Amino acid sequence: MRQHPEPVPYSVIWTPEFLSYRLSESHPMNPLRLELTIDLAESLGILAESEIIRPDRSSEQELLRVHTPAYLAAVQKVSAPDSGTHRENRLIGLAHGLGNDDNPVFPAMHDAGMIVAGGTLAAAHQIHSGLARRVVSIAGGMHHAMPNYAAGFCIYNDCAIAISWLLDHGYTRIAYIDVDVHHGDGVQHAFYDDPRVMTISLHQHPATLWPGTGWPAELGDGAAEGTSINVPMLPGTPDSLWLRAFHAIVPGAIRAFEPQIIVSQCGADTHREDPLADLALTVDGQRLAFRAMRDLADECCEGRWLAVGGGGYGLIRVVPRSWTHLIALAAGIDIDPATAIPDSWKERARGFAPDIRPPERMGDEGRVEFDRWSGSVVGPVTGPPSAERELARIDSAILETRRAVFPLLGLDPDDPRD
């Protein structure tokens, strides 16, 4: 089922309090996905080998690293509806992105946001203190939240808060890699003019998906020009082409930047079954993306890797498998995608969603083999004309991003060795 390479100190951040982040009964970001992930990791014996760290809520002072006092006050006010009239609270909320379909107000929302942020901060503490080199907090990844408003299901931007904390504790080069299907706009915004932080986002093309940002020309400002890297991909991009783009851009950029730590946002909504987006990855491809980021941390950062969750709305069939692979990879365990899902877990999943057929195995038999980018616009193609068109499109996207940013990193955009 799995192989155990050399052990590396790692930990998992988990508390049942994470399940309090529930925007509404019908909202697609249902914390059931977190609960079923932990259950699956436990069923496969992964957590038996893990140190589980129970986090505290972040302090309001830590939230102010990224968010404005006015925004915190608004979240607290709408979280306690007795503090004002319904109309007053609604107007205050809407002015800060709260109370709409994406970000409905729910009881104790401020506290729920603080425990998620506290989880990612606890992960940063673990790595900084030397207690662990790899840490996973699947509840984190709220990468859309902006300084003064909520966005895209995200109340407090735990990723940016933890990165800010690391900067204040001696880190001078931090790489943030975001593989969520949506652009990591909130984290990019937080560090757009900070040359100490490189943000890399691979996402569905902004012309086809919210939030409409993440173009290759978004490079960073001033001294930080070249530290914002965006790789947009057209709807329907499968594992093989997504991985081709990742390996054509991310390793070269990371090696040039020489980070001391990698922070990874591991959204699982790139999956072909995700109901809110249009990429076509499988769990097999997602697993290889996570493994590639882990291996880059081993190569470039002495193993320092902080991984969080993010998007992902295939609550039964996708997210639990994807993030169980993530937890396992942090532990140095490679779960074979052919591994059978335990019957006990499938039965539990059916109890939550009788109409959804649970997966049978830890992979989707995805076609993850890919030809590495060769430096030409279109590589050698075997197959129908549609395959040639798809390859031409991904290679054009690769070149657009490389030509926008690689010269700023001292790299040759046309040389596949860089």
TrEMBL record:
<protein>
    <recommendedName>
        <fullName>Acetoin utilization protein AcuC</fullName>
    </recommendedName>
</protein>
<dbReference type="GO" id="GO:0004407">
    <property type="term" value="F:histone deacetylase activity"/>
</dbReference>
<keyword id="KW-0006">Acetoin catabolism</keyword>
<dbReference type="InterPro" id="IPR037138">
    <property type="entry name" value="His_deacetylse_dom_sf"/>
</dbReference>
<dbReference type="Pfam" id="PF00850">
    <property type="entry name" value="Hist_deacetyl"/>
</dbReference>
<dbReference type="GO" id="GO:0040029">
    <property type="term" value="P:epigenetic regulation of gene expression"/>
</dbReference>
<dbReference type="GO" id="GO:0045150">
    <property type="term" value="P:acetoin catabolic process"/>
</dbReference>
<comment type="pathway">
    <text>Ketone degradation; acetoin degradation.</text>
</comment>
<dbReference type="InterPro" id="IPR003085">
    <property type="entry name" value="AcuC"/>
</dbReference>
<feature type="domain" description="Histone deacetylase">
    <location>
        <begin position="27"/>
        <end position="328"/>
    </location>
</feature>
<dbReference type="InterPro" id="IPR000286">
    <property type="entry name" value="HDACs"/>
</dbReference>
<comment type="similarity">
    <text>Belongs to the histone deacetylase family.</text>
</comment>
<dbReference type="InterPro" id="IPR023801">
    <property type="entry name" value="His_deacetylse_dom"/>
</dbReference>
<dbReference type="InterPro" id="IPR023696">
    <property type="entry name" value="Ureohydrolase_dom_sf"/>
</dbReference>
